[in-house]
Amino acid sequence: MSFVFKLARDAIVSQITWPVETSNGKRLKETCMICFEDTDATQMFTVDGCFHRYCFSCMKQHVEVKLLNAMVASCPHEGCNTEVTIDSCGKFLDPKLVEIMSNRKKEASIAVSEKVYCAFPRCSALMSKSEVLQYTRTVMLVAEQSGARKCVKCHRFFCIYCKVPWHFDMTCIDYKRLNPHPAREDTMLNTLATKKRWRECIKCKHVIELAGGCYHITCRCGFEFCYTCGAEWRNKKPTCSCPIWDEPNIIHNRQRRQ
C-alpha cells in the first residue's frame, strides 16, 4: 500500500499548480515534492531533460551537499539519473559554487596524464595539454618546441616542464641552475613527502602514499613503478631488484581491511 501511495503522490502532487490571489493579482503556486511547501511557480526549478520540478531552496541544498562530497549533482527524484546542468544552477547557487561545479566537471573529463595547471598560484587554472597548446599556438608558433604555454584563464605564460613562470631567454636547465631553491610551498611539500615516504609518479608527477600491500604501484594515470626506488614496471614485471613486498606491510594492510 505504501508503494502504491508513493506512486500516486508522485503522479499527482508534482502536477499541482493553482492560482492564488495576492496584492499584485493572481500568481501560480506549486508544491515542492521535497519539502512539500507551497511555492511560487517562478521559484520552482525544472531539471533539464526529465522536467522534474523542485523549489530553489531544496535544489540549493541538494546541489551543495553533492559538491561537499565531490560528486556530480543529479536530479533528486528517486530513480532519476538526469544530471543537473551547470548553467541552470546559476538560478539558485552562488557564482563561486557554479565555478566549482564547472571545474569539477572539467577535471573529471580530463585524463590524469593530460591535466595541466597554471603555474601561477593565484590562478592555478586546470587545462588539458592539448587545450593549452592550441591556445598558445595562436600567439606563438614554436610553442610545442619551446615548452611555453599561455594560460587560458589569466593569459600569462608559464613553462610546462618546470611548472614556473616562463623563462624567455634561458633553457630549463639554466633556469634551475640560477634558481636552485624551490618555492616555500614546494619545500614544505618535499619535506612532508620525505617524512611520510611518499613517492612521485615520474609520468604525471602526482604524489602517492602506500598505506599497505606490495610495492608494485599502478598510478591512476596508468604508469606502473616500484614504490621503493621509482623504477618502471614493464609487462607486469619490475625493472629493478628491490623486494616486491615485506611481511609487516602486508599484515598491516590485511588488519586494516578486517
Automatic annotation (TrEMBL):
<dbReference type="InterPro" id="IPR002867">
    <property type="entry name" value="IBR_dom"/>
</dbReference>
<keyword id="KW-0808">Transferase</keyword>
<keyword id="KW-0479">Metal-binding</keyword>
<comment type="pathway">
    <text>Protein modification; protein ubiquitination.</text>
</comment>
<keyword id="KW-0833">Ubl conjugation pathway</keyword>
<feature type="domain" description="RING-type">
    <location>
        <begin position="28"/>
        <end position="246"/>
    </location>
</feature>
<comment type="function">
    <text>Might act as an E3 ubiquitin-protein ligase, or as part of E3 complex, which accepts ubiquitin from specific E2 ubiquitin-conjugating enzymes and then transfers it to substrates.</text>
</comment>
<comment type="similarity">
    <text>Belongs to the RBR family. Ariadne subfamily.</text>
</comment>
<dbReference type="InterPro" id="IPR001841">
    <property type="entry name" value="Znf_RING"/>
</dbReference>
<dbReference type="InterPro" id="IPR031127">
    <property type="entry name" value="E3_UB_ligase_RBR"/>
</dbReference>
<feature type="domain" description="RING-type">
    <location>
        <begin position="32"/>
        <end position="76"/>
    </location>
</feature>
<dbReference type="GO" id="GO:0008270">
    <property type="term" value="F:zinc ion binding"/>
</dbReference>
<dbReference type="GO" id="GO:0016567">
    <property type="term" value="P:protein ubiquitination"/>
</dbReference>
<keyword id="KW-0862">Zinc</keyword>
<dbReference type="GO" id="GO:0061630">
    <property type="term" value="F:ubiquitin protein ligase activity"/>
</dbReference>
<dbReference type="InterPro" id="IPR017907">
    <property type="entry name" value="Znf_RING_CS"/>
</dbReference>
<dbReference type="InterPro" id="IPR013083">
    <property type="entry name" value="Znf_RING/FYVE/PHD"/>
</dbReference>
<keyword id="KW-0863">Zinc-finger</keyword>
<dbReference type="Pfam" id="PF01485">
    <property type="entry name" value="IBR"/>
</dbReference>
<keyword id="KW-0677">Repeat</keyword>
<protein>
    <recommendedName>
        <fullName>RBR-type E3 ubiquitin transferase</fullName>
        <ecNumber>2.3.2.31</ecNumber>
    </recommendedName>
</protein>
<dbReference type="InterPro" id="IPR044066">
    <property type="entry name" value="TRIAD_supradom"/>
</dbReference>
